[in-house]
Specification:
This protein is mainly alpha-helical. It contains 6 helices and 3 strands; from the N terminus they run H-E-H-H-E-E-H-H-H.
Length: 172
């Protein structure tokens, strides 16, 4: 049964990352708020996944401190990899003064590496937990932290270009 969980997790991770990478390799506008919708949805799914993962562990025994530390650490790793990926995304002003973005081959490579890192960390978390599927269930949260960090940093770089329609003062 465990190998089926691992195969399903790998499939879900590859589909999610495939969709994200495909979208990032196209030149597209940097939106002020739209780039946070995907991470917010993934974050919601991630919160539910972590709750299910915790429930799957506490069904058998108390949740261990090492498994929680590893879970939090994996989310930190996701954010760090998101920051690195953000540096590989090209950001420029388009012909109409709008901010544009496009990922590179390095962005794709870092996404694939990020999935590999998550799989390794998920296995480690599940081993430390001793039962259940906490690490496996943290996939969406991991993607949310990584993509969210990347998008916030790309948006900051776009704002520094001062594209048309972006102001430094909040709207009234």
């Amino acid at each position: 049964m465990q190998s089926t969980n691992g195969e399903a997790t790998l499939f879900i991770a590859l589909v999610c990352v495939g969709l994200v990478v495909r979208r990032q390799l196209r030149a597209r506008p940097v939106r002020r708020y739209g780039s946070l919708i995907g991470p917010a949805i993934l974050g919601s799914l991630g919160a539910v996944g972590i709750a299910i993962g915790i429930a799957s562990v506490v069904k058998y025994h108390a949740l261990s401190v090492p498994s929680l530390v590893l879970l939090v650490g994996s989310l930190g790793v996701a954010a760090a990899l998101g920051a690195v990926r953000a540096r590989t995304v090209q950001v420029w002003c388009g012909p109409e003064g709008e901010a544009l973005r496009k990922g590179s081959a390095a962005t794709t490579g870092l996404w694939l590496a990020s999935v590999g890192v998550h799989i390794g960390l998920a296995l480690w978390i599940d081993h430390a937990a001793g039962a259940g599927m906490l690490g496996t269930a943290s996939l969406y949260a991991y993607l949310a932290f990584g993509l969210g960090t990347q998008n916030v940093l790309v948006r900051a770089r776009a704002a520094a270009l001062r594209p048309r329609g972006w102001s430094t003062t909040p709207a009234a």
